[in-house]
Design goal:
By secondary structure, the protein is an alpha+beta fold. The protein contains two helices and ten strands; from the N terminus they run E-H-E-E-E-E-E-E-H-E-E-E.
Amino acid sequence: METVFHMSLPCLSVKETKNFYTDIVGATIGRSSQTWIDVNLFGHQLTFIKAQKFNFNSPNYVFEGKILPSFHFGVIVDETTWNSTYKKLKEKKLQLVDHSLFLKDKAGEHQSYFIKDPNDYMLEFKCFKDQKNIFRA
């Protein structure tokens, strides 16, 4: 059985969140109401629930000389999906934390880029050179 994850997060605007994930990222919407939505992000369920203003100010960290956001979530996709999604987001002239290659020639070698959603969450897209090495040290 394939396992998928579910994550629930607060959001400021259900409408803006829905528009970002459907129109920008290309995700689909599952169940929803005026106060929450389920987003199908590459087969994983993200639930966004309308909430008051919140703050996730966390320090960034440095990995292989790149400054990355410590609070983020993302998806691991195949190289074709990674490239097509990157191209689509770039064409929309969105502000991306540009792609980087990490752990070159080591177990876990992967490419990654980030985009900020309307709730200030950093969404990461990762593509591993060898999917068998996702958890390999």
